[in-house]
Amino acid sequence: MLTFIRHYLxxxxxxxxxxxxxxxxxxxxxxxTDAITKLAVHYLNTNKxxxxxxxxxxxxxxxxxxVMWVSSYKEKIVPFLPLTTVxxxxxxxxxxxxxxxxxxxxxxxxxLDKQGKxxxxxxxxxxxxxKPVTLSESEQKTDLLARKVLNLINRRQADSVYLLAGDDFKxxxxxxxxxNVAKNxxxxxxxxxxxxxxxxxxxxxxxxxxxxxxFGSIDKNGKFNAFAMPPYPDNTxxxxxxxxxxxxxxxxxxxxxxxxxxxxxxKGNIGVSAGIFYxxxxxxxxxxxxxxxxxxxxxxxxxxxxxxxxxTFTSTLLAIAVNQGKLTLETPITKYLPDSVAQNxxxxxxxxxxxxxxxxxFPFQPDNVSRKIIDINQPFENYDTxxxxxxxxxxxxxxxxGAEYVYSNWGVALLGLMLEKIYHQSYPELIRQYITFxxxxxxxxxxxxxLKTVNVARGYDKxxxxxxFIKMEAFRSAGVIKSSAFxxxxxxxxxxxxxxxxxxxxxxxxxxxxxxxGGYTVxxxxxxxLDDKNLISHNGGTVGYHSNVSVDLGKQIxxxxxxxNVTTGDAVGVNLMKAIQAMKY
Length: 585
Hints:
Pfam families: Beta-lactamase (PF00144). By secondary structure, the protein is α+β, with helices and mostly antiparallel strands.
């Protein structure tokens, strides 16, 4: 069963790479579209982003404010200017598609509304044309349905897509959950053009860089039962071997190198810091670069964003508060909300436990997040407590609290805000007092002063452009922490044992299973592997970093992986844990 579910902190916002071109020589463009494109050329190549914004329609302006657009222009477009030529490729669903030449090749998508305003105008990395292949009859049948579904997604018609799903798909993904999944996909619309690659076991596989689209398992009623959109596996191997401090003198060294080397030698992956606790000893391995082209190997003390691994810290704070008698896991959240918010009947049955184990009924994030985005690299920077309380006032429950697992940044962010209210301390103060100070984690923080802190890993986005550390206000308890492999391994080891009795008791409580439906098994924050109830883990991802912490409670093994780009770094942690578990102990 293939489904597309996000488990990372950040859903990359719609990439708005609008730009202009010095000359337009399309083969068969609609003249009006061509004229608008030429005008966009003039405005962007003459540093007039505000003038171009005036060409967009109301629907575009609803999603992207003028402030966001100007920020995007400065950060995402100016580095590519000047762009030189555009070549018309094709027209699909009223969208004109061009190849753009410049510093790097790009694909440009343009469409107009009925009034001749820009409705779509964005860039993506250009992918070389894949030679057409002959589809079998069954592949053609799947392809027709796949393109119909993609068209509906681009129109944001989630319910219409669900009507085309088969019984097997619906058995695993109900309508409410699908709508939450679809909302995450809508951040990525309009989707890149789907190029058929191959078919495996009745599932068509397409290139939609930077994603791969897997679709099919068509049943006798013509309904689909497989749907997935994982990152596109760019397996291009670097010509130069990445640097590493792995001495390759032990069996463990070789096992680690086999897993990480495959990742770091893949084009686009920048750096990795790994920490391993095995047979009572700590080991650290580093690969690649702290900064692309800088030739500086990261080390055990290099600072990275850890993203959603922060949620395990927040859940540990909850466990501490429970053990101190400040509340129970079953305490309703309305007890600590302002009266004007608590009177919303949709909130009355939600408990603290359900915030920590993602069964509260809250979606991934509130609907009003996008309206507060000024910098697309910092989607949560300007979202404050007032914004969250406003969202809570208007929240409408669509499922019974405690009945279904739906990963939610919102829930854990709210948990952190209420813990601040209970303790009358800020989130960074609570983390320091109850977790990082007892564990001597001196390189773990909620904000990094890059002018004073030199040993940092620079993050890189999906276009391999540099991005900053994540900044957050109301959402910081869901993903703001930055740390090193050295500190994070201390944290991972604490999941096995720690000399601090209060922290040990809280960790034990955080590991207790609070939800298990056969598909998801979770404690407080931590998720259990489906096939191994001794293995807990959590991934993290921001706009420029990925991370993973995995702990085998039975074999006493801990693995930490920190990376400074957003490909598949979290999967490295999972694969490395499996490889170490398979070693003869």
